[in-house]
Amino acid sequence: MSESPDDGREAYDFASIQDRWLPVWDEMAPFRSGRPDDERPRKYVLDMFPYPSGDLHMGHAEAYALGDVIARYWVQQGFNVMHPIGWDAFGLPAENAAIKNGEDPVRWTYENIEQQKSSMRRYACSFDWDRLLNTCDPEFYRWNQWLFLQMYERGLAYRKDSAVNWCPKDQTVLANEQVVAGLCERCDTPVTKKKLNQWYFRITDYADRLLEDMQQLEGAWPEKVLLMQRNWIGRSTGAEVQFAVEGRDEPVTVYTTRPDTLYGATFFVVAADSDLAAELATGTEAEAEFAAYLERVKRLSDVDRMDSARAKSGVFLHRYAVNPVNGERIPIWASEYVLSDYGTGAIMAVPAHDQRDLDFARAFGLPVRVVVASEADPAVTGEATADDGPHVKSGPLDGLGKA
Predict the structure, then answer these.
(1) pLDDT digits (tens, 9 = 90+) for 144-182
(2) Dihedral sign (CA 275, 278, 282, 284)
């Protein structure tokens, strides 16, 4: 022990204590799972794997302490607990960190894995060190490739162009969570949108099955978690409606969950970053204004665009669609609040009965037509009305309720 220079008390020499006990813990392997003679009931505890973009920090210690508590609890309850650890080492954080530090990504990644492993062992997390994997190891990612091929051969993997968050400095795609206040979280460069040809999985083919199987979890999982899963699956039932567009040979299809409110559609909105918006703006009085607006929209994340509290913005494209149920000409706008990847990237706006449409209509002085009976006027109150009453101003639907 060393003398503390200020009060004469012996300092806590944690380094020597760790060096003394680490080999003892290694020999005892108290958290090793899967021993052939272990007849205890089994329990599986899994933490999210860390990115090997540097050494651990206090955020890691906090996060893995929670998993450590759970694993130790079940060990104390007499369970054979499998608590593995690995590194999410095949992605942007590790690669970007290597580029930033001028290092070879392979050497940088594996050195950081060893450093993080050493740090985790020193604070004695209850991991089974025989259950360790790195996602950048061929022994691991060969199974990702195998799984992809199985889905591709069954027609479940396909390619299409889609807008992504793009950092022009790092030359890389960013997840929404990596865009902070419109900037790349790593280099603070303004993020824009870029269309890239990407692979997609037809997960919607399994939406019904996923929702039905979730019934088995009722009462066993927290209701808020089940609700989050239902929202993520996002199944909706509706209809596709075709709108003729003046000056365009092909009609535009919109998806709506309430085709019975077509009589209340008073304008039409297309996603500002869609090919359709660019096509409709070309050669019109709105072309220059639209181009400037599109550049602003490209700097927004999808999360920002879907924020209901965000002030609505848009550009009138000087084009008109024709409402198929009454022949009414309705103006076409391009706006950020419609996403090109949702539905067909175009919507019929029914402002009296949809809050976002109403906010847009009030911002630009567009008409609001109530087609489901209501005592309040949304154009005055600023609040969209309920849509489960009898229909009004809806031609043959007048007097009928929601189906």
Answers:
(1) 999 999 999 999 999 998 888 899 988 888 888 788 888
(2) positive
